[in-house]
């Protein structure tokens, strides 16, 4: 009976996992990015371990029992395999419980609501921000196109690229972070797009993928910067306008 319950819970986790993987810090306004990244990694690890300890162990057990039933093994051999499977299952559950407890502590410390973001809180915060700082009309904005090969190469190794940020090059997972676009970067991208860039003029004056700390220190609009970063990750497009201030 316990195994059936755990398999059902594992099925629920398997359904939730894709949504969990897609979460970014922009889904939780006001949450520190470093704390979000730490929780997100630990929560994914906990879910993966639990799935292996439930469905993974169940499938392995069924496979081994089928093999044993069709072979001429002694009762002692079959009993040994049964005990090994049971011990491995219990150890897996204990490891999963430990990983889950750590993820829960990190989640509470960061003030994160999961499996669903606190919609009422984030919606009210974004509504207030929208009234105070109107968003630029995307239909009026041109875009600069990055080479998607560059973005693919950064998916596993992107870090905060803001030299003015005191962070220790905080890792930025795919789909997250904030894109800071300076006015100088806009001029540089327009020149490249128009084929008028010459020599080394403007080298380095390109948009910066930054962490939450760097974005807040620059005083930029976090919602716009997070949306720009997400769009950059997905399509390589960068709007040819400076990031608005908060």
Assign an overall shape.
Answer: elongated
The averaged pLDDT comes out at 78
The main pleated sheet reads as:
2 strands, antiparallel
Please state the structural category.
mainly alpha
For the termini, the CA-CA separation is 55 Å
Note the beta-strand portion.
under 5%
User: Could you give the order of the helices and strands?
Assistant: HHHHEHEHEHHE
Spatial order of the strands forming the largest sheet: 1-4
Summarize the amount of helix as a percent range.
Answer: 55-70%
- The poorly predicted ranges are 118-133, 199-204
Describe the 3D structure.
It is a single chain. By secondary structure, this protein is mainly alpha-helical. The chain has two domains: 109 residues, no CATH class; 107 residues, no CATH class. The protein has eight helices and four strands; from the N terminus they run ααααβαβαβααβ. It has a two-stranded antiparallel ribbon. Strands 2-3 form a two-stranded antiparallel sheet. The longest helix has 37 residues. About 9% of the residues have low confidence.
